[in-house]
Amino acid sequence: MRALVLKVGGVLLDTPQAMDNLLTALSRYRRQHNRQIVIVHGGGVVVDNLMKKLNLPVAKKNGLRITPSDQIDIIVGALAGIANKTLLAKALSMQLNAVGLFLGDGNMTEALQFDEELGHVANVTPNDPTLLKQLLQADFLPIISSIGLDQQGRLMNVNADQAAITIAKLIDADLVMLSDVDGVLNADKQRIPQLNAAQIAQLIEDNVITDGMIVKVNAALEAAKDLGRGVDIASWKHPDKLTALLSGEIVGTRINP
Q1: In which residue ranges of the chain is pLDDT below 70?
Q2: Contact 13/84 with Cβ under 8 angstroms?
Q3: Does 44 carry a binding-site annotation?
Q4: Which of 67, 73, 141, 244 is the most exposed place for a label (fewest CB within 10 A)?
């Protein structure tokens, strides 16, 4: 079975019960199956909380967090430190053979700044899968924070969706984007099991898919095209469905290329 990359957002880290549910399902699943699994996480909530404690302003451009040089250390501390180690500690306490990483470890990915005005913000591209493949073959559960490293050795803040897509491409894995939504809903608020590009465009035009879901669906569609197969958007809120999700069943919405 193909490896699976699970992308989890910062809200999960802020919801202890949800984190418990996900890792319990993972622990149960791994006892019965030998599917290789990688977790890639963001942590916007953790970053915001830390910035607030330190009385630092949060500036954005086109919805993206501006990360000046004098703030990147704080962002790295929040994402690669607090968020990563919180997840790691919980996973280890549940007997999951977890290891905490960031996108630069083993030159897994290469970060490239895409807008100087955003500061230490970058996209990443797949680079060297050796370390990740070795960890997976040794039955580790890698937990990767969305902090990257560019060629100049600068630490960079990376969008967690984009980080997860890159890791999935790096090891040719299936990708599930976990959040607090059940999937894409139709006009009657019913979950749509599968969607393609044409259907997505129509739903956006009809104002059925709006706001943040447009970004999420477009990111999943881009990933599906890159990977050449469906990408799932699903919720971590239903512990009873998580095991089925890990087995490849559609419990949210599958976005097809």
Answers
A1: none
A2: no
A3: yes
A4: 73
CATH number assigned to the domain comprising residue 132:
3.40.1160.10
| Active site amino acids | 7, 10, 44, 161, 216
CB atoms within 10 A of CB 58: 12
User: Is 254 annotated as contributing to ligand binding?
Assistant: no
The whole-angstrom separation of Cα 65 and Cα 146 is 14
Residue with tokens 């971590």: 236
Nearest alpha carbon to residue 110 among 62, 169, 68? 169
Q: Tens digits of per-residue pLDDT, 48-62? A: 889 999 999 888 888
Number of domains in the chain: 1
Q: What is the CA radius of gyration of the chain?
A: 18
* Token pair recorded at residue 82: 């607090």
Write down the pTM of the prediction: 0.94
**Structural domain of residue 211, as residue ranges?**
4-255
Longest dimension (CA), the chain: 50
**Is the distance from CB of 252 to CB of 183 less than 8 angstroms?**
yes
User: Which segments within the chain are labelled E, that is strand?
Assistant: 4-8, 37-41, 60-61, 64-65, 98-102, 109-113, 121-126, 141-145, 147-149, 155-158, 174-179, 194-195, 231-235, 253-255
Q: What's the full length of the chain, in residues?
A: 257
